């Protein structure tokens, strides 16, 4: 979920994934703190790449340029490493940034996720790959990442790169371009955002419409024009309520708009984004996990958030009646709350 607090600060409740804030020190300092042999340096660099590609790409991009969907919603936006010069701050300060995070930003500390060696590896990778050499890093659309034969999406490439505006008048497009536009909307827009539009219009909804492939072969509902989605797709299907009252209907809308981004539309937290979070979002459907969950405890968690997790406080975002509606929906759709009386 994307949150906006009373001061206008923007937060991303997927607190994983934003890397270093600041600029870096000189190339000589990097060399002084790197392994001596070329083989050792190469091995360390590749280990740093693996950490970056798992933890950081979502906000900073595979090429470190922050050309991501997250950059449209975060204030301050994710750091564009490619624009930085290799001079300051020190490597030690940069490591502290990754370890401790930065208050009033979406940059969380990774101290409880990465050990000090892993933090140093990813810091050195960012400095070397993006700041010093302006490298491309890893192409996302590869067979290894679950995208075999990426050329089959070629019809959508012009919209992903912004060569053709997404809101171009249909009568000016060829049949192939119209097909490519729909393919982009169905499959590519999650990561590429709107790419290019003539009219900015109102803020776009931040909801996922496609999923990573991860080389899966599960037979879940087809959600795009090319291939079936991965194992995460089934968790984006909301339960169907039987004869919901008005409060439950309102709670359903609030949950799917605000909470499903992390908890999944089905409340399990086993969706794509939920799988990245540490600790994982609560599975609202699991009787064991929900054991002991009371109405009062759930309300406190929603209003005040949970320390050392990605669950933020909603008291300044949602009104009391909206939280009441959320609780009603969770009680009905996912797990009954002891003592809750349905209106």
What does this structure look like?
With 343 residues, the chain is an all-alpha fold. It folds into 3 domains: 2-132, Cytochrome Bc1 Complex, Chain D, domain 2 (Orthogonal Bundle); 147-192, no CATH class; 246-333, Orthogonal Bundle (Cytochrome Bc1 Complex, Chain D, domain 2), CATH 1.10.760. 36% of the residues lie in helices and 3% in strands. The chain contains 10 helices and 4 strands; from the N terminus they run βββαααβααααααα. It has helices at residues 27-32, 38-55, 57-60, 91-100, 116-132, 154-160, 175-192, 246-263, 295-304, 320-333; strands at 2-4, 10-12, 24-25, 86-87. A two-stranded antiparallel sheet has the order 1-2. β1 (2-4) and β2 form a beta hairpin. α2 (38-55) packs across α5, α4 packs across α5 (116-132) and α8 crosses α10 (320-333). The longest helix is centred in the first third of the chain and has 18 residues, at 38-55. The protein is globular. The two termini are 28 Å apart. Residues 1-35 and 204-229 have low confidence and may be disordered.
What's the overall geometry? globular
* Total domain modules: 3
Give the CATH level 1 class of the largest domain.
Mainly Alpha
Strand content: under 5%
């Amino acid at each position: 979920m994307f949150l906006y607090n009373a001061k206008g600060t923007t937060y991303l409740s997927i607190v994983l994934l934003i890397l270093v804030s600041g600029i870096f020190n000189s190339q000589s300092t990097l060399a002084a703190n790197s392994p001596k042999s070329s083989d050792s340096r190469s091995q360390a660099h590749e280990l740093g790449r693996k950490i970056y590609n798992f933890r950081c790409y979502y906000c900073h991009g595979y090429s470190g340029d922050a050309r991501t969907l997250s950059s449209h919603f975060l204030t301050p936006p994710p750091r564009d490493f490619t624009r930085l010069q290799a001079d300051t701050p020190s490597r030690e300060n940069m490591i502290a940034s990754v370890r401790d995070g930065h208050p009033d930003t979406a940059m969380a500390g990774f101290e409880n996720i990465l050990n000090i060696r892993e933090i140093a590896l990813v810091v050195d990778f960012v400095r070397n790959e993006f700041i010093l050499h302006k490298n491309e890093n890893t192409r996302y659309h590869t067979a290894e990442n679950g995208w075999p034969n990426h050329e089959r999406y070629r019809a959508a490439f012009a919209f992903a790169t912004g060569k053709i505006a997404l809101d171009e008048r249909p009568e000016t497009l060829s049949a192939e371009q119209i097909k490519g536009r729909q393919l982009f909307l169905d499959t590519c827009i999650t990561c590429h955002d709107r790419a290019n539009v003539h009219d900015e219009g109102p803020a776009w909804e931040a909801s996922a419409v496609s999923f990573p492939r991860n080389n899966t072969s599960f037979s879940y509902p087809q959600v795009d024009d090319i291939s079936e989605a991965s194992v995460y797709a089934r968790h984006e299907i909301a339960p169907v309520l039987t004869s919901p009252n008005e409060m439950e209907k309102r709670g359903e809308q609030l949950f799917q708009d605000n909470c499903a981004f992390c908890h999944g539309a089905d409340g399990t937290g086993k969706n794509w984004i939920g799988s990245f979070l540490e600790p994982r979002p609560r599975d609202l459907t699991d009787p064991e996990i929900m054991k002991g969950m009371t109405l009062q405890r759930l309300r406190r968690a929603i209003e005040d958030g949970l320390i050392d997790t990605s669950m933020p406080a909603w008291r300044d975002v949602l009104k009391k009646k909206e939280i009441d509606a959320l609780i009603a929906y969770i009680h009905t759709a996912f797990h009954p709350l002891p003592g809750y009386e349905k209106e």
